[in-house]
Amino acid sequence: MAKTFLDEDRSEELRAWLDKAIAARETLLAPPLACSEVGRIIQREMGLPPEESAKLHDAVFIGVEVVAPAAFTDPWRQVRPGITFYDAEYLALAAERKATLATADRAQLEGARKAGLAARSFVPGVK
Asked: Which pLDDT tens digit goes with each residue over 57-75?
């Protein structure tokens, strides 16, 4: 989600992909932890006043449904060496909804591929 507002390698590609997905009215999902992650990055990287930070945070989630996996134990099924509980929550949500995981996080991408989940890479240097 941070690539939507930070200028990093492959950020433009991700923004274009999101614009197309939103225009096509595709369902975009994120686990609740994504809200905290985005807030932390905005606070750390952007240096904006609280009001502007709140507006940016809200804008990042336009068109995104924030939803937890159905059962709290689901993410634990995805935890394995190299996969944190945080990453596992993304994997559990993708598995539960049979959704494609779009990520710029190498560990999430590798975890999705190892679990046999569909994944779209925005990891720099990785297709």
From this structure: 999 999 899 998 776 545 6
